[in-house]
Amino acid sequence: MFCNKAGKVIGEGVLQRLGEDEFEFQARGPVVKWLEYRLAKGGYSAAYATSISKFKFQVSGPAALAVCEKATGEPLRDIGFMRFRSAPIRDVDVLFLRQGMAGEIGFELQGPSEKAEIVRQAILEAGADMGIRQLGSRTAMINHLEAAFPTVTHDYLPAVGDEPEREFYELYGSATPVFGSPEWFRSFARTQKVKGSYEGRSVTDWYRSPIELGWAKSIKFDHDFYGREALEAEMTDIKRVRRTLIWNKQDVVDVFASLFEEETPYDYMEFPRHQWNAMYANKVMDGDRLVGVATSRGYSYYFRKMLSHVVIDTAYAEPGTELTVIWGEPGHRQKAIRVTVAQSPFKQDNRRADLNSQA
């Protein structure tokens, strides 16, 4: 992950070491531009190139290992968590990164874009008798919610709009690329948007530190890095943490029922979650006291619950704590929805399961 000087997250991604001096960083959003900026600013002896010419498929779930081994015709049990190696699928050299974005055993398959359909068809055929299903964008992000993967533009804004990162923002944030272009995916235009009942005083109120997002265990203070001083101070006095909220069923039903009333309805709850790129942030209250900010509201079909992430004051972080979320934009009809604090991740994390123990 990359932080600004104040210890707030700009973005995160996956860094893969392909050779002694060759690395590949995978991410979306302005963190890619931030990396380019810091490479140039720091005067490092390094060169880079940007590309989106690879296909990336994720195969995740209880049968993921069996599906992938059937497709390759060889065992993959030697691949450790967040490690990778190549294996062939129909004469295509595919890189298997063990990851698991559903919180289960899983692999991200990477290869040349022109071979994408060959590999996709091979995976679907291999998994046909194991119940494989394809997920689209309307459901994929529910995995992020259940398995607790906070996501840029959904759970935090990239922290680049304030000093001392202002120079970077002015260099890279002024132009608006064409919607849907490769540059658009790395732009500020798609990330600096907020909705919901939460009302901040400045853009920094929508920034989050890695500690608040539940990534404290990934922070190592054995080397120098940008934002280290701020994070060291925060670690000594942690004020907010990440949890899951379970939304009250009847209160959620009331929001939908309002669509059939003569009175102005509550703001619509898109199902299973909102689809456009914005941080939909809602106030979490204990009476009249603001105690947290809820994001990534979504309906889990597996658990049959409306859930959300929340960054919450530590005094209210104990699972079972009952609070309310304010649903509705400022100036609109608003609904106080009862919520209960739960663990995060909400589902059991099975990503690191021993592959040799799998059937």
UniProtKB/TrEMBL annotation:
The family database entries (Gene3D superfamilies) matched by this protein are listed as:
Probable tRNA modification gtpase trme, domain 1
The lineage's top-level taxon is Bacteria
- The GCVT N-terminal domain extends over 1-156
For substrate, which residues are the binding ones? Answer: 108
User: What PANTHER family does the record point to?
Assistant: AMINOMETHYLTRANSFERASE (PTHR43757), AMINOMETHYLTRANSFERASE, MITOCHONDRIAL (PTHR43757:SF2)
- Protein's name according to its UniProt entry: GCVT N-terminal domain-containing protein
